[in-house]
Amino acid sequence: MRFSRRRFIEASALTGIGASLLSASVQAESVKPELPPAAAPKAKLALGFIGVGLRGRDHLEGALGRTDCEVVAICDVDPVSIAAAKKLIDSKGKKQPAVYDQGPTDYQRLLENKNVDAVIIATPWLWHSQMAIQAMKAGKYTGVEVSGAFSLDECWELVRTHEVTGSHLFFMENVCYRRDIMAVLNMVRQNMFGELVHLEGGYQHDLRNVKFNDGKQPYGGGVEFGEKGFSEARWRTTQSVHRNGDLYPTHGVGPMAQMIDINRGNRFIYLTSMSTKALGLHNYIVEKGGADHPNAKVQFNLGDVTQTMIKCKNGETVLLSHDTNLPRPYSLGFRVQGTKGIWMDVNESLYMEGAGKPHQWEKAQSYLDKYDHPLWQKYGADAKGAGHGGMDWFLLNSFIENAKRNDPPPFDAYDAATWLSITPLSEQSIASGSAPQAFPDFTRGRWTERKNAFAYSDIY
C-alpha cells in the first residue's frame, strides 16, 4: 500500500485529541498501583529448559542454586551443549533431568511432559516465538529470551495465544533490572527529572568476534559463520546478510518503557528508522581472513548503525541505536531527560537544574547511591556474582516467583509484542525511505486502564 502523508497527518491529529484528554492523568509521575494479594506459591517449581547453550546455561546455573525449583527437563539439538548442561548439573550435586535431544522439534515432547510447570526458552532467534506459542498452548508458564521479531503477524500470534490459553508469557529482558537503571527509575518515580520529554537507549556492542569464528575455539577471531561457525556465529550473522533494521531493540527499549509506562497509560504510536552503509563486517573479514576469503564476497545488508525514533502517545520521543559491527566500547547509551534534569550513562553523569553548578555535569554515582532502588538494597547481596552485574539474578528470581504463583509477569505478551515489533517496523521504515510506520495497539485499547506494577513489590 502506498504511504499517504495526508492520511498519516489526519490520523495523527485524531490520536492527538485523545492524548490531550488523557494528559492530566497519564503524563504525571507513575503512581504505585494497588496490587492484589499474592497467591499461595508452589513450594517447588518444576522447570524445563529449551536451549542450554551459553545463555541457557546462565539461567540453568541460577536455577540450580535455588531450593524452590527443580530442573526436570532440558532440550537442545547440540550434543556439546547437552553435555555441558549435564556436567553443570552434576557439579551442583543435582539429579539429572529428562533429556530431549532428538532433533529441532523434540522440544514438543518436553512440552508434553506433565511434570514441567514452567519453561525457559533460550534458543536462536528464529525459534523464540514458535516455541513460546507452543509452550503457552501446552499450559506452561513461559519465559522467552529477547530478540527482535520477524513479522508483525508473529507478534500478534503471541498476544492471541496468551489471550486464548490464559498461559502467561514472561519476556526475559534483564536490563530492566540493571542497578543504575533501577535507581534512575526510582528517581523518575519521585519526579526528580520532572515530566519526561526524551529518552535514548540501544544496543551498542562490538560483536564482530561473536558473529565470526574459525570453528576451532569460541570467539577465536576467525571469519566463518553459518555451518562453519560456533555458537551465535552459526545463526546470528546470517541476519546481517539478509536484513536491515534494528535487529535487537529490547535492551534499550525495555527500561525506557518502564519509565514512561508504555502499554500502561501510554503507548508507542509510530516510528521512523534510518541506517548507514554496511562496511564493518566486510572490513573485518578482509582484515582477518584476507581479500580472497570466500566470505569477503558476501554482501551484508545490515547497516553498521541503525537509529530509530519513536513517538509516544503522551508526547515523549524515544531514540534507539543498534551498532554491533564497528569497533567501539560497549554502551547501551541511555539518556533520560525531563523538565528538571537529565541523566546519561555514557558519561556517568547527570544535571539537575538548581542542584549543581549551572551548565555543568555532575557525577551521577552519589545520586545513584542515594536513590538505589529498594529491591537492590534488599537483594543486592543475593545477586552478587550473578551474570551481567547481578541483574540476571533479579530476572530469574522474578520469573520463578511469578511462575510459582502463576501471576502475570512484569513484562508480558503485550510488552513482548510491542518491543519485538520494533524490528519489522524499522525494516519497513528503512525500506520505504524512512517513512513512518504505525505501531499496532497490541492491547486493543487496554493500555488506558493497565497499571505499571514493575518493581513495586518483592516479586516484581
In short:
The chain is α/β, with parallel strands linked by helices.
Radius of gyration from CA coordinates: 22 Å
Name the overall outline: globular
Mean pLDDT: 91
Strand order within the widest beta sheet: 14-13-12-11-7-10-9-8-15
Helix share bin:
25-40%
Low-confidence segments? 1-29
Major β-sheet annotation:
9 strands, mixed
Kindly report how far apart the N and C termini lie. Answer: 42 Å
Which structural class do you get from the secondary structure elements? Answer: alpha/beta
Strand percentage, roughly? 15-25%
Number of helices: 16
Number of strands: 15
Account of the protein in words:
The protein has 460 residues and is of the alpha/beta class. It has helices spanning 5-26, 54-64, 79-91, 107-111, 125-137, 152-165, 179-189, 208-211, 236-242, 250-259, 280-289, 365-370, 374-383, 391-405, 413-420, 422-431, and strands at residues 45-50, 69-75, 98-100, 118-121, 141-144, 169-171, 196-204, 268-275, 306-312, 317-323, 335-338, 341-344, 349-352, 362-363, 437-438.
